[in-house]
Specification:
A hairpin with a 2-residue loop joins strand 13 and strand 14. The chain is of the alpha/beta class and 448 residues long. 48% of the residues are buried. The protein has a seven-stranded mixed sheet. Helix 6 runs antiparallel to helix 7.
């Protein structure tokens, strides 16, 4: 049992699920668990499970008061931020200054400050990297670590390891010993370059069926109404790598060059002047083809950056393309095309009838056979959370374990965490799926 305190900020579905895992695993003393939310009703579950009423903190954060709640914590304690509408970059900096272990599951900005879509991701990522570079030796914090973003970045490494260990292509067979050495040394970017990885295509398929009847003025989501609508309606963002041309990539996602809002060769950032919901392309879930929306997502920045190699002049000599392909459940997908939504309905486990969620990464390249690595969860009537929520909370739990076991690594993106450790921590809840069949060089062509 850890002796430090943990504060769970945002005690909704993921917060309750994480608390449930922590209690089951006896990770923190119940008296050392604090929960924070902006509504009192969120605390009922905590108190029902034996949590102290005095450890329930009613608090609404904004850009002026964000530091006040951190006064409850000491150096070495854990601050797990699971809410929305606040600036995770500011919180990460404040926690680094105070020596508090910080974890967030997304990137966000203060709701009382101007919103700079679509360049918030780009600007924030640069500042996150500066914070990471300047925090070595400080309290370990993990940025943007849920299932996606977060666990999905770990699965990119798992996929490369699977290729090195088991792929039977001529290149890998001839160079297996050398490639194994790169894995052992943790040189994953160099490994991707030698394998000529052209793209990491993240896929997310939600097959949830609920008892809701669709209303044409209601938005539905299995995770967050506001974030889901924002993600689907914001401009689509991808990262373009060195192995494909801009025209090839645009053809793949069915977009003309006139619809490019912004493109930077310096870092591969590609912004399309269309919302994510209005761009579709193909990907794989295990060995089954799917089509989904090409949404903006935090991890396209961190995955691309981690696997990028630059020359002595700072120019990119190798980088993979990265994009997120998302197929929400049918009622949620339909709802983002409503003329207007005046209310939201969260699809909790109590409203589910069947289905679940499958997330994974498809790795494409020149010197190996395409591979898919992912995880999946399905409806369990006895669970306290739906599959989407447990995917996130189990991943957060794994990151907390990593932060405790490596307390002085400073601020880290998911790609910098140890693949074996993280997968061992999530394995009681989430399976790892590897698929090598059904993928071919033509399999990602757009369906006619």
């Amino acid at each position: 049992m850890y002796e430090s305190k943990i504060m769970i900020f945002g005690f909704g579905g993921v917060g309750k699920s994480l608390f449930n895992i922590i209690v089951k695993e006896n990770l923190f003393a119940l008296d050392n668990i604090l929960v924070v939310d902006c509504t009192r009703k969120a605390f009922r579950f905590f108190e029902k499970c034996g949590g102290k009423r005095e450890n329930c903190i009613l608090f609404r954060m904004d850009s002026k008061c964000y530091g006040e709640v951190l006064d409850e914590l000491c150096p070495g304690d854990f601050f797990i931020y699971l809410a929305v509408g606040n600036d995770n970059l500011v919180l990460a900096k404040e926690c680094a200054k105070r020596g508090i272990h910080f974890l967030c599951t997304t990137d966000d900005t203060f709701s009382d400050q101007p919103f700079t879509e679509p360049f918030r991701y780009k600007t924030h990522f640069k500042e996150y990297k500066e914070l990471m570079d300047n925090s070595a030796g400080g309290a370990t914090s993990v940025l943007q670590f849920g299932s996606n973003p977060g666990l999905i970045s770990i699965l990119t490494k798992k996929a490369l390891i699977e290729i090195v260990q088991k792929d039977e292509s001529d290149f890998v067979s001839r160079n297996r010993h050398h490639l194994q050495k790169l894995v052992k040394e943790g040189e994953y970017a160099e490994l991707a370059k030698e394998l000529r990885v052209s793209a990491f295509v993240e896929t997310d398929l939600d097959t949830t069926i609920s008892d809701y009847t669709e209303d044409d003025q209601t938005a539905y989501s299995t995770w967050s109404i506001a974030d889901f609508e924002g993600e689907m309606n914001d401009r689509s963002i991808q990262k373009l790598g060195s192995e494909v041309t801009l025209s090839e990539h645009l053809d793949r996602i069915g977009v003309s060059v006139d619809e490019v809002y912004y493109f930077s060769k310096e870092d591969g950032t590609l912004v399309i002047d269309k919302s994510g919901k209005d761009i579709t392309t193909g990907g794989y879930v295990k060995n089954e083809y799917m089509e989904g929306c090409v949404d903006a997502h935090e991890e396209v920045f961190s995955i691309h950056d981690y696997y990028t190699i630059r020359d002595e002049d700072g120019e990119i000599s190798y980088a993979p393309s990265v994009m997120f392909v998302y197929r929400p459940c049918e009622i949620a997908l339909n709802s983002v095309y409503h003329e207007e939504n005046i209310r939201g309905r969260l699809i909790t486990n109590e409203r589910m009838l069947s289905g679940g969620e499958i997330i994974g990464i498809c790795v494409e390249g020149k010197n190996f056979n395409p591979i898919y690595v992912g995880t999946e969860l399905y409806y369990d009537k006895d669970a306290i959370e739906n599959p989407t929520v447990l995917l996130v909370s189990a991943s957060v739990y794994a990151a907390i374990r990593f932060m405790h076991d490596h307390p002085d690594k400073g601020v880290l993106f998911p790609e910098y965490l140890d693949v074996d450790e993280i997968l061992s921590h999530v394995s009681p809840w989430l399976p790892v799926i590897v698929s090598r069949t059904g993928l071919s060089g033509k399999s990602y062509e757009r369906a006619v």
